[in-house]
Each structure stands twice: as C-alpha cells, then as structure tokens.
Amino acid sequence: MREAAIEKSDPESTDLRANARSMATRWVAGWRDVLTGKSLVADLLAGLTVAAVALPLNVALAKTSGLPASAGLVAGAIGGILAGVFGGTALQVTGPAAALSTMVAAVAFEFGATGVAAACLMIGVVQIVLALVGAGRVAKFVPESILAGFTTGVGLKLLDQKIPELLGFDEIYHYKLIDLAGMMHQPQWLHHVSWHAAVCGLVVAFMVTRLKAFKRFPAAIIGIALMTFVSVYLHWDVERVGQVPGSFPRPSLPLVEDERWFDLAAKALPLGLLAAVESLLSARAIERLAPDVRRHHPNLEIFGQGIANLGVGLFGGMPVSGVVARSGVNVQSGGRTRLSATFHGVLLVLAVLYLSRFIAQVPIAALAGLLSVVGARLIEWRELLHFAKHHRIEAVAFLVSAAGTLSGHLITGLALAGLIHLVHRFVNRHEAAQQRELAEAKAKGTRAIVKPQESEGRKPGHWQALPQHHKWLTNIQGRSLRAKSAFVHENASVVGQVVMRDHVHVAAGSSVRADEGTPFFLGEDTNLQDGVIVHALKDRHVLVAGEPWAVYVGKRVSVAHNAIVHGPCFIGDDTFIGFKAVVHDSVVGAHCFIGHGAIVVGVEIPEGRLIPNGRIVDSADAVALLPMVAAHHGEFNEDVVEVNRGLAAAYHEHDGTSAHAERALEARARPIPTASWDERWIPQTDKERF
CB burial class (10 A; 0-12, 13-18, 19+) of residue 654? Predict the structure, then answer.
C-alpha cells in the first residue's frame, strides 16, 4: 500500500514545483526503506562484491578511454556514492560505462584529461536540467522489445569481453568470443588457455549459479576470495588486477581555454544525453531482474546522475552512468536497497586508500567468471522467441537494439529500433486500439477481452440482456439457463445466472455460485466433478465477444474433484484442471493441462501449455517456463469428457421416472418470459440495503 501511494504521488505534469515535490517524496521513501528495512548485512555484502568487480573495470575503462587509472577510480568511487545517495533507484550501481567509452575517448583525444573532467561538469548540468523539467518520464515509452534488446546486447558484450579473460588468454592474442567460435574446429587454440585462470573463473561461476537458492549466502565474494587465496598460496601464474593507486586527487575546477568551451560543449551534450538514456534503460533492465524492489523514479535518477557527474568532474574523473553489468552483480549478490550501491562507492574509496595491495592480487579470471554469469542472465532469449512468434517486426527491433549495443553504436541502434517499432505500431494500430480498450476495461474490473469467435454465450435463444443493477439479492434470484441435455446432480448447488450448454455435467457436491460475481457460462460437454467450486469476485469480468462474464468455461473442459475455478476467469476449450487445483483471476488458453494441486493466479496462459502437478504459476516469468502439453494429455481429457457425457445421460435416464425430475424437465422446457433479468428480479425494497 505504501508503494501504491507513492506511485500515485508521481505526477506526469511538467510543472517544475510538482516535479521537484515528486522527486523529494520518492527520495525520502527510498531512504526510509534503508532505515526501516532488515537487509543491512545483505546490502553490505552486496556492496563489497560489487566493489570487488567494479574496481578493475573502472581502471580498465579509464585506460580504454585514454585516461589515467585515477580517472576511473574517481568516477567509480565519487560517482557511485553520489548517485547512490541522490538517485532514484534501489539497486542501480553507477560508474564508468563501456557504452560511453568511445565518445569519452574522442573527448580525451581532443581535450585531454582536463577536458574530460570539464565535460563531466557540463553533463551534470544537462542532466539536472533534464530531471527538473521532467524529461525522465519519456523513458517509460521505450518499448519492451528495445529494452530487452538493449539488455541482451549488454549481456552479449559482457560475454564477448569476459569469456576470453576467464580462459586466461594473453593480451597479445586479442581473442573475442566470435574468434573462439570460429576456431572450434581448430583445437590449437586450447594451447593458449591458462588452465589455472580457467579454474578460477569456473569455480566462481559454479558457486554463483549453484548456490543462488541461498539468498543470504554471499557466493560471489566468497568465491572470489577463495580463488584469490588459492591462486596466491599455490603461486599460480594468472593475470591479476595489478597495482592500484593509493590516493585521490584534490578537488579543483577544471580549466579549459575560453575559445574551446563551445567545441567541448558540442561533444558533451550528446554524451550527457547518452549517459541519461543508458541510466534509465539500465534502471528498467534491473527491475526485470528484481521485480520485487521499489520501482525507480526516472527524473530523480537523472538528477542523481547529474549530481554524480558534477562531483566526478571536480575530482578529475570521467563521465558516469547507471550500468547494467555492475547493477546485475548487485542484484545477484543479494542487494535490496540503495545502501548497497552507496556502500560500494565508500568501499572503493577505502580500497584505494587502504586495501590496494590486497585487491591487486585478485585474479582477473575470477572476476570474469562472475561477470560471465551476469552476462548470460542478461540475455533475454525467451523474449526474442516470444516476439519472433507473435510480433516479428518487434523481433527485428529487438535484434537491431541488441546489435547497436553490442557494436558500440548505442544511439544509432536505439534510433533504428525505435523507427522499426513505430512502423509496427502503425501497421498494427487496430491491435493497439484493442490493447487500450483492454487497459481501460481492466481499470473497471475486466480481467481480459477474448476474441469474438471464442464466445457462444449468446447462442441459446432464451438468453436475455444482462442486468444493469448488480446487487447481490438480484444475483441470487437469478435463474440458471440450462440446455435440456445438461445435468445437475440433486446434491449439487447452482445459484444465480449460470448458462449451461448441451451435455454439461455438474456432479454431486459441486457448488456453482454466481451470487457475487455474475454471470457464468459452461460450454457444451464440460464437466464439473465432485466437490468443484466455481465462484467469482464482484464486478470483475472477462469480455468474451464484447460481453462480460465473471467465469467463462469453454467446450469439453474437465474440472476434476475438489478443484476451484474463481473468477474473473476464462478457461479455453479442451482444457483439463486436475484434482484440488486452483485457477483464479486468470485466462487459460485452449488445450491446456493443469496438473493436480497446481495453482494458477493472476496470469494469462497461452494455449497448449502444461502446468505440472503442484506448480505455482503467478507471474509472467513462471508462465514463460511452462512446457507444451503432450498428445496423451489431450487424449486423457477426451476420455474424461466422454465418461462424464455418458454419466450425464445415464443420470438423466435414471431420474426420468421421478416426478421431481419430470417437473424439473418441464420447467426447463417451458418458455421463459421475454422480460430481462433486471426487470424481473429487481426487489421492491431499498436496494442500498444490499
């Protein structure tokens, strides 16, 4: 509830005062999480792990950009602290970024290290202005295909850089992952592998992956420390982090010649925009890895990045942004609040001042093992397969975004991917209109809108208009509409407006209650076995062919003993729901098989999926992991449908001689007056009583 209240307080208005108030509210809420949470130890251990990974990366990126190592150390330490304190995300880690290195190198080549520091000040001012005018909200319009492609590109780039380091190749070979793939048929490259380095990297990767179930166990830092000790004790000849400077430069205002400020600003402006874009994309990407943390505030995050770049510039550093790789390590290492990112910066300061000789002994391959795991987890291949199956143009946008990120042409890749996405939006504008309709309907309580050909609720000629007055007394007084061949056991209960098509079988002990949520539909040949409960929430529906149903169960659906189907809910044709299974607030496609004791809550399951026995499916990630049904699952449901159709017919014949059954059949066959439900059953008492 607290999160919901805060989200509601984040206005979309560009009003400066309202935007500043929104940022202040979120900043206070973020630090309240730190002070009231119980994750201090986890955050400190995560910060320690991230610092161990970030320190050599900061040095390496500084050298790649043509700057001294101190520039990278300042950027990681000062920028990490300031962005962690003032930023708008819980788990994002700030520091030098590989995506910025090409542009930073161009500035360093033309203006030197002092010019880069001055550019940091300009970038900071630009980002603070963007935050105050509310430009950060534009990031929410970045489509999922482009975001997933960006994340995948970062993951592939990490693997391309770190797998050769994990294998311990000397720098003279300059191997990349694509080079290794091309040499697989030539085993001579194995002679260049440092097996000691490979052991360091693989042990760390093994510990991180196999111990991930133990959330509080700092597998990454323990693995790195273990391999550092072993490699030093056994005198392994592996590449290490190496000498680390033991001090920071004093803060000062960088001086640039007057006539060169304009030229420097022309290069700093696009660099600042790129850093802001990468920070926001990184923040969204990290939320995909840790969906249970507080969502980021885009304007506050850009503001924090601006403050960080101002501080870095005063200490002679290089531009910083939020980085997916280090943030991914933070998530993997168990970080929970912004304290982990802030503590990572503090540790970098202390490490430079007091622990530089110990950090110098860490094997590069051990860090590469950790980052390889992070890179592999950033690759969203399931999203690509989903787009390839359902939205091929979005799959192209995904690939273009990934290729631009991987090749270092981030802005070009994102721009082209955005253009492709806009083309897709235009071509499928009618589908987009339907999605907006669904969003508006969900805001009013509708669970889903199902395509028109799925509905047969209007086919019985005696169906009348739905009531406008949804009071419970009216619902309870509603009559079920049954086909003559449908059978409801005398020990079963059917209450309210329930439509039952041909050969529906409701077994003994079942309870079909359309008293709160209403109406219900049961398609032909559907069977509800002993003890099944069908119920629904008030004023919550699925729209099938434009008509609202609290529960819609298609044709030839089997709901086994003691299962619960609780609306709003749609169950597609030829689906089986096992013993004691629960389906609530969900859309289940046709030809699905839900195992015994499975729980399906708040999701939309595509057709033909198998939910194994006892499986809990309550998120999109859980849905993505579901396997396809096998042929024998469909055959099993066909057998159950056939058996229950025979049972319904047998019960009809058995009860046909009883006077009660004859009167019931006569009543079902008697024409129903044309008056609608709401006119027929509106009570004469004060409706507000109910």
Answer: exposed
